[in-house]
Design a protein that fits this description.
Elements lengths: L1 E2 L3 E3 L1 H12 L3 H24 L3 E8 L2 E7 L4 H29 L2 H17 L7 H14 L1 H30 L3 H22 L1
Parallel strand pairs: 2-3
Antiparallel strand pairs: 1-2, 3-4
């Protein structure tokens, strides 16, 4: 489903909405959507500061995906990638302080979700911002091939760690489903990307 020429909503996002309605998590879904929007706004501002033009925005299963025109150096890539988590952490701080004054549950939820989203995106696994930052730093020093191998190794390590911690939490405390879901999503994303490159 297209809205205009630059904004797209795909089926994955509709599934997320359906899941939010089914589990009666509408309020938390709106909070997460607001946190994700601020995160992407951080990327947008950084791209504009680097002279790039945003050409499209897709709302899908994993949130917002932004496309842009223009080339970025590796250091500019680090700046743009870090801008999203930075915006999220700023939002988390503001929401936490405001929640302390007003005592609103929604503000505390926004602070928690925004902080968790920022931390999650700093994981050294592609396509997370942390993986992009790690790739850029290593590419500058050792080249793209070494950067690709390193990010692949760290991604496997992150997936394995999430699987171990998530399974332990699920067995011992009946929690950890989200960690397992993230691990499966990261592994599936890499599989799909490799399958596309093979054809």
């Amino acid at each position: 489903m297209n809205i205009g020429s630059r904004f797209t909503i795909n089926g994955g996002f509709l599934l997320v909405i359906a899941a939010a309605v089914f589990f009666d998590a509408g309020r938390l879904f709106c909070v997460a959507l607001a946190a994700a929007a601020v995160h992407e706004f951080g990327h947008y501002v950084a791209l504009r500061l680097k002279g790039c033009k945003v050409t499209g925005l897709t709302l899908g299963f994993t949130g917002f995906e932004m496309t842009y025109s223009g080339a970025l150096s590796y250091y500019s890539e680090v700046f743009v990638a870090a801008a999203g988590p930075a915006a999220g952490l700023i939002l988390a701080t503001i929401a936490a302080v405001a929640g302390g004054y007003r005592g609103g549950r929604t503000l505390y939820d926004l602070a928690a979700v925004s902080a968790l989203l920022s931390i999650f995106n700093l994981l050294p696994a592609y396509p997370m911002d942390g993986g992009r930052i790690l790739y850029a730093f290593i590419a500058v020093r050792s080249g793209e091939r070494a950067a690709g191998r390193t990010v692949c190794v760290t991604m496997c390590a992150v997936v394995l760690l999430l699987l171990i911690v998530g399974t332990n939490a699920l067995l011992c405390y009946r929690r950890g489903v989200m960690l397992l879901a993230i691990a499966v999503w990261l592994a599936a994303y890499q599989f799909v990307c490799r399958a596309r490159n093979a054809f």
